[in-house]
Amino acid sequence: xxxxxxxxxxxxxxxxxxxxxxxxxxxxxxxxxxxxxxxxxxxxxxxxxxxxxxxxxxxxxxxxxxxxxxxxxxxxxxxxxxxxxxxxxxxxxxxxxxxxxxxxxxxxxxxxxxxxxxxxxxxxxxxxxxxxxxxxxxxxxxxxxxxxxxxxxxxxxxxxxxxxxxxxxxxxxxxxxxxxxxxxxxxxxxxxxxxxxxxxxxxxxxxxxxxxxx
Length: 214
Prior knowledge:
Largest sheet: 7 strands, mixed
Helix content: 25-40%
Structural class: alpha/beta
Radius of gyration: 16 Å
Distance between the termini: 36 Å
Strand content: 15-25%
Order of helices and strands: HEHEHEHEHEEE
Number of helices: 5
Strand order of the largest sheet: 3-2-1-4-5-7-6
Number of strands: 7
């Protein structure tokens, strides 16, 4: 059973999507991920986007930890209904509508987003069968909707290649947890040090003090 780990609703069980339709992030990986995001100081007051949301666990965790607004995007009817139940749960705890569910495919959602729409923290946990080219196209659409200092987290199989980062986005870290690999990216800053300029030891572990743009 997955749960909200910390924050206003810490310890609260979440509704899971029935069957094998989705591949939920394990509590172990989620805890390590949010430990790193806490070190980046990107959650409190953030505008969060959870694409391929599944049960919405990553998005609602962000809401529990102080995100200003959270958008969950999920196209499947059953998964979207679970997202709504989990959103209602966290919104009830917070006493306000922080989490909003959008039943939509990811590409049309990004196409419809206002030109001025910008998010500070974005999660992408697409189905493993999603083709690399399709993921790259989604990242391209996303790149123009990132706020200054935004962090993008892509969760993939540890056997999958590194995502194809579009112009306007650059990877600054990655971390493997068993069969799962997390990739971290940020808006490209021309004067920043490229990830390839850093030695392997310069990227801290999940509980280290690494920060975006390092």
